[in-house]
Amino acid sequence: WESAWDSGDNKEEEVEEETTGQSGPWLQDCVVAMSPCSDLLVVAREQKAVFLSAKWRSNDSGREEMTLAVSWTGTLSTDEGECVSSSVCIPLASQKRSSTGRPDWTCVVVGFTSGYVRFYTENGVLLLAQLLHEDPVLRLKCRTYEIPRHPGVTEQHEELSILYPAALVTIDGFSLFQSLRACRNQVARAAAAGSDVIQPPPLAYKKWGLQDMDTIVDHSSVGIMTLCVFDQMKNASILGGFNASVKGSPPAMSQYVTVGGGPYTGFYYAVEGSSQPLLSHVALAVASKLTSALFNAASGWLGWNKNKNEEEAVQKQKPKVEPATPLGIRFGLPDSRRHGESICLSPCNTLAGVTDDFGRVSLLDLARGISIRMWKGYRDAQLGWLQVPEERGDREFSPSASLPRRHALFLVIYAPRRGILEVWAMQQGPRVGAFTVGKHCRLLYAGYRLMGVNSVTSQGWQLHTQQVCLLDPITGALRTVNIPFHLALSDKKSERAKDMHLLKRLTTILRNILESEAKSVLLDIKHPAIKKQPSLSDKQPRLAREKCDVCMCFCITDPEEVDTALLQLCSSQLKMLQLYSDIQQLHSAADIEAILCSCVSFAGNFMFWGCLCGNSPLHKVCDTLQEAGISPQQLLSLLLSVWLQREKEMLQKPGETVRNLHTLLIALSNMKGAVEESWDTQSISPWWQQVRHTCIQSHNSAAALLAAFVAHRAAKASITSRADSKKIPVYLPRLLSLQSEWEAVSLELEQWVVFVRQLEDVLVLQTLLLVPPPQGSGGGAAAQCSIKTLMEGGTGGIADSVSKWVFRHNLSPERLKEILQKREDKEAEDKLEQKAGEEGKEQEEKTLIKMLLTNVEMRFPHSLSPDLLFAHCCWEYVVQWNKDPEESRYLSWAVEHLKLVSSPHIQLGISTMMWSTFIVKRLSAAAFLMEKVGKSPKDRLCRRDVGMGDKAATYFLGCCVQLLQILMEADSAVEEVPAPELSVEEAWFGAEGPASIAELALEQRGVHYPLVQHHCLLASLLHSAMTFSLKVKPLSLFDSKGKNAFFRDLTTIQLMPSGDMDPGLISLRQEFLLRVLTAWVQAIDDSSGTSPPPLPSSGPKADWWPSMCLELGSLLQVNPDILRRHLVCELYNQGLDPRAEEVMLEVEDKDVLGSQLLVLTGQRLSYSLLHSQSQTQAAMELLARLPPTLCTWLKAMDPGELRCPLVPLPQTSRLVGRLIEILPENHAQYSLALHLLEAVEALTTED
């Protein structure tokens, strides 16, 4: 410390030579600031400063210790005559995800008498300079984020506050954090390569002109507060009089408290949302060896200035200073003779300590605005606060252990005139500590932590910050103040503090094994919970600790002096330590080390693992355990826990470990108190029930099954031996020869048979569930199963587990159906055989999955019946789709699984549940959105209202149509088929838990068929509009009754549209359906020849669109023949003649169709003869030979209406032939058709 201030060869250290010569309190003349992380200390005086950073070094004795060494010295002021007046060190949080709470770097903020505030790095590099007010900076203070300890507490924002003699500036912490990071990055880039300057976000700040106070010397920014309604009404009455109006909700206000004179303390309130100036002119200087720049918000960031003269000119030019917004004082504490000197805000923002020139320290209640306590005799006092959380050990014995941890608040007062540091409990508590220190120290209290922290990024962080430190310039020591929580408790609890002190003393005595002293100290401890701590303080069975505990037990020689519980505890511990020594001698040293290092459950592994591996004498260990007095039930519990926990190691040598387990189990069963002597073999034994109870809860099913086999055999042998020991009645002499062939039947053995069957089932199921899914598939980790989880999962627990497995493995519904039906698609097998060389591994995995799933189905024929499994798979997929609606395949597969359910009752119930739980809300949102925009909405609107993109929404609407169709079909079939009876396997009777999906489905009420059909109609219209991007207002296609019936509960009877519909509505519906057909024809434009290729089963080219439109037409009272004629014309228009001929057969009104096709034929011929670019001379001659009426008619045709005018002549000839067939001879245009036929034939002949 002294080396940093004494004179030396280093010129940079000569700046402090004047101060080292002083014998007085030189530190009191300096501005001192310390980072709350204790890693940076700033000492400044006038224009110069020293930065000291934390470093590790070895002291004289070789121990590593933390020291503060000089890292930078230099001059901070740039303007003539300005001096440092205030400083703070703000650690900035790291933005890396791996951060654990250490700061990324620390920014040094310095205020000057010129009004400038400058920001520096730890190395003295200037980042940012601001002139916010042309008065000296009096005080800099910072507030950082703190997690609210109680619900309802307002979350405070981070900020930096700067106090001037008549103004207060607050800079938003988030904006400052981003700007400082940007400036630091810019400096680093400039130092490396001189790249362009990047503009950081503008700083947001508020500037208040503090009025109605004579002098202000210090301040505290308390933060945002909201008044209760009573206080709001009181203030309104005081400020506005009797007739003042009160707003409905109290406004949020920022509270500022100032100290000084006239009044002695002032309270200011700024309503949030009021006018605030932005930082429009900020001088930014980037000082490095390469360059510097000026930031001005009006003109943006300037480039790197290469001209030194320009640089100096810019620096001399002071930026414009914004005027302050006037802020009147709300109230104050008037005391004309008293002048405040400093104010220190508590961490909880409710209290503040104030010092004054009368040598008093006052405690303010900031919420009420009153002084609640005063200390006298503390001239030039320095204040700090300590907030101490309750120790976890104390919490365990507290009656309020379930409530959040309590925090104690202490005020630290340093009185330099008396050289004493005192700690006082708040608010009216006593002095809990006093320390004699030097008279020239500085109490350093930051009052903040890391900047840039929020509720999300601070999760799991351990913020290493010191609250209060004392700096002694004489010794160079930096001491921290730590106070135990129990000092804040009342006098009744002071015994506990004494007991804690005695406990520490006793621990020291036991290490030195001083029996007489240990006894006296132990008897002095009053609290029973603390009495037990010496014996429980070290749970690791080390020999050194063992001697101390044994010594402690022996030191209690007079039972009358201690309570019985403590004596019993010591006696039990002594037995346990003796047992440890005995078993340790039986085990080999290598086993002991392995057990100590690797096992979680020490006791069980220590006692039994060596025996299970065959490395220790089994009977000697059992005899030793029996002599120790441990109950057989506890030993059995330890043995089974070891066996089940170390399943993998046990399965490496199953034969040997199973034999040893059997031997141990028999030995424990033969111990006194294991199996009751009075046990009747026809009842259940508590001993063997304990084995079953332990294995029931285990997820390690292989180890549990082996343990069950062993225990079953041991129980059977025990029952047989008891049966043999009983006397045979005289009247059954013939059974004597057959006795060896008889097997004793009992309730206990029946329990074992059922239990082993359950474990076998669980093992087969768990083997399936643990098969790893293919890479890239979702679904999370595999579910662990045990008898307990399956029994608690209810009747559908097994199907639910398998359905989650199906989802994780991305198993398609068709593939699952094939496996359940125990047959494979022959073609698929042939294809797989062809690719056996390339995809052998994939084929093996599929075969393995099929085999395992088949085995599980055989074990659970009822719980995994196809209908039950398909139902659970359907529900699992729709749940996963609801989590991520963009995954349309999930919903599609959910519907496919639902189709595979054979029972209409289950289908009906699941469809209803899916509709009401997941579908109807999104469908209604899509309908109202399309009604609002009048067309198929864009991606952004779909995401906002429906919760998915436009493509996913189209897919969703298609699935809605399928779901409602399944619902209608199931409702129609319910009356014809009886409801299925659901059952479970005999071994799994008694399962308790939620009902299966199938059971819930069977409980659903029936639906109203017309209402379902009504919704299916709407979903089809929405799907059509989204698929083909058509303009439509779907709800406007229905009357008021139809609109009101939408999105009602499907089980209710609604008033549906009936009778003839309004012709205007029918016209709108017809126009929409015609546009759908036109869009479909345009989508399937396949330029096919005589035989059109097959169409896909989904999407805009699907082959079912025309039939769907015809169905919709019949439901919407649109003449289906109009739709068919339009479809025929559109297909011919597109040049799809073969498809048009298929549809033409279903048209009823041939006359009208003939007239329409006549025009279309004329357009084709007109294009060939008059508009084609490749007109031949023969065509021109043919045109001349045509009858004048036909020639005039062809010229009147407009081939531009044809989407595909270039059609082969044979197709047109075939079309004219069809025209002659469908037009009657008495038709007005029949002769025109004949002329057309002649013209086409002539043209064909010419070609």
UniProtKB/TrEMBL annotation:
InterPro entries recorded: Rab3GAP2, RAB3GAP2_C, RAB3GAP_N
Ranges of residues in domain Rab3-GAP regulatory subunit N-terminal: 26-444
Pfam families per record: RAB3GAP2_C, RAB3GAP2_N
GO molecular function list: GTPase activator activity
Keywords annotated in UniProt: Cytoplasm, GTPase activation
Assigned protein family: Belongs to the Rab3-GAP regulatory subunit family.
Protein known as: RAB3 GTPase activating protein subunit 2 (non-catalytic)
Source organism of the structure: Dicentrarchus labrax
